[in-house]
Structures are given as C-alpha cells and as structure tokens.
Amino acid sequence: MICTYILAAGAELHLGGLGWLTDAVLARATIRPGTDLADLNAQVPHLLIVAQFGIVAFELLSPVVVLLPPRWRLATVGFFYSFHAVTIATIIISFVPHLAAMTSFLPLERVRPLLWARRLTGLATPAPATDVPPADPPDGGTVPPDQAPVGAGGERALDDQAPAAGRPVRP
User: Fold this and answer.
1) Which UniProt keywords apply (predicted)?
2) Which of 4, 22, 101, 129 is at 20 to 30 A from 12, Cα to Cα?
C-alpha cells in the first residue's frame, strides 16, 4: 500500500519533473468532471498549486506510517482516507482496492459488530467465561453442585475430562 504512494510521487516527478509541482495538473483534472467542490477550489487563487505540493509531500512521507505508534498511525490512516474522500469529491477518481488495502493499518480486532448490535438493541451481553466463582447468588441461597463453576475449588470431580488448554492441572 505504501509503495503506491511512493511510486505515484516518483511517476509525477519523473514524467513531469519539478514543473509538475507548479503545473496546472490539478486544474485540468478538476475542470473536466466539474463537481461543485472542484468549482469552489478552482476559484481560490494558488490553492491547486499548494495542493500539488501537499500531495507530493504526502506521497513521499507516507512510509512513515509504519513507524508511528498505534494512536498516530490511526490518525494518519484517517488522513489517508480523507485525502481519498476529497479526491473522489473533486476529480471523481476512486481507488477502491487501495482503500481496502489501507484497512491493514487499522485495529480491526476491535471491530465487534455483534456486540455493538446487542448494545443497540438492549440485549444482554453474555458474560465472559472465567474460572472465578461468583460472589453469592442473588437470592442468598447456595449454588447447586451441578451448577458450580469448573475448577473453582474442586467441588466437582472431572476425572473423565482432560484439563482445559492453558490451565494447570491440580494435584
């Protein structure tokens, strides 16, 4: 994904030279589709030239994303997505495979749509499985022996079952 930006900057500078930075490349690209945002940007003097310098700087500095701490990496990838959103809004070019590849820098392990759906609908979230015994039953009674938590003091004999992976076997 990062190579895409580096190669794009290399192509811009190789094919257009340093003149690419001050050429009317973005002006030509925004006039053709004629979106409302592109028309607004074209009215601001020198904005598109400054944007071209910014685009090349952004593309050349993009490998820094792999060196950033997670919080800054997330903000940088957010900037990458906002850059592509503006690109789509102004010159109507979309790089969908590239946008999908950028998700490799996102903490997708924290995306839990089923948990979010349960919270939105008000359904109870299942309690995490632990081997810590519950404090006291809510009615003040005792827990029946067939419902006692496994490994919470050895009340139940599990001689016919293998120990769970990662848990020490009691003597």
Assistant:
1) Membrane, Transmembrane, Transmembrane helix
2) 101
